[in-house]
Amino acid sequence: PEQYDKLAREPLRLLERSLLRQAAEAPRVARPVARLKLAQAYLAHKSYPEAEGVLSVLSADDPQFGNQKNVLFARALAATFMGRFVEAARLLAEPQLSQEPEQRLLQAMVDSKSLRHPQAVAGFKAGMEALDRYPERLQGDFRRAAVEAAIEAGDPVFAREQILAYEQIDSSHRNPEVQQLLAGRLAELEG
To answer: What gap in Å lies between CA 63 and CA 56, rounded to an integer?
Structure first.
């Protein structure tokens, strides 16, 4: 999460140009690391299809590097936000990721989008420590899904906590209309 925050602060096109050059000019042995950094930059800027493309090439070119924890996580993140939940669940089930807090967080997102709200709430709660370290650009999507899952699962306390956390996110990374809608749905749940 820390590297995503740093990458998210730089303009994508300038970063992309620099990282593409580094990946192209890197010797074969260093190319997977350069490609991973490029994919992470795409992920930090929510360019999920571009990240998936780079990660697919990386994994095909160097299968051993492609099975490393950080690569599997990046692939799962891209798949999750592109709506490829079966692929994301398969990647999240890999033993390298099974004990990671980020795995629980991403699995919660998959569960939420797959309408398994009670499981999603449990996963979001387990992954909160990891979520707090994410850049606001990515936090907004997770927090919104956490609120929706909590409302659907009938957990107003967790929903309220997540709405308050969502309100703290910079307005350029959250939607005020969605915030009001979620607050209204929570009020309806609370009666």
So the answer is: 10
Q: Contact at 8 Å (CB) between 121 and 109?
A: no
* SS3 at position 12: helix
Residues near 71 by Cβ (< 8 Å), separated by ≥ 6? 36, 55, 58, 59, 65
SS (H, E, C) 115-137: CCHHHHHHHHHHHHHHHHCCCHH
Token representation of residue 35:
């490609």
Residues 6+ apart with CB under 8 A from 49: 78, 82
Q: Which of 27-31, 61-65, 170-174 has the lowest mean pLDDT?
A: 170-174
d(CA 98, CA 159): 26
Report residue 147 CA to chain centroid gap. 16
pLDDT tens digits, one per residue of 8-58: 778 888 889 999 999 999 999 999 999 999 999 999 888 999 999 999 999
Chain position carrying tokens 């910079």: 170
- HSE-CB at 34 with a 13 A cutoff on CA atoms is 17
The tokens for 146 are 């956490």
